[in-house]
What does this fold into?
Amino acid sequence: MTALAEAKTRWYGNANYIADFLAAANPRFWPQDAMRAAMRGHHDETLTEASDELSGNFTASVADYETVHLHILAMADLLSSGIMRQFPGRFH
It folds into this structure.
């Protein structure tokens, strides 16, 4: 296995670890499959952006950045919504 493949395996493994941690903290509103899919999507999009940037495909990299940006905003909504739904009495 190449160094890049090994790094990607560890990176995606870390994403699963984070997703599983979040799912355990709030399983009702952050189910494991949804959290893993969100993290995997973020990593996939970030990897595409990095690849385009490093290969000099800057036009694609800019478009990729917007995709990453919109996805991370959706993830922020998912996380904040889960917190507000878990503790409804603390948010008005």
Residues 3-90 form one domain.
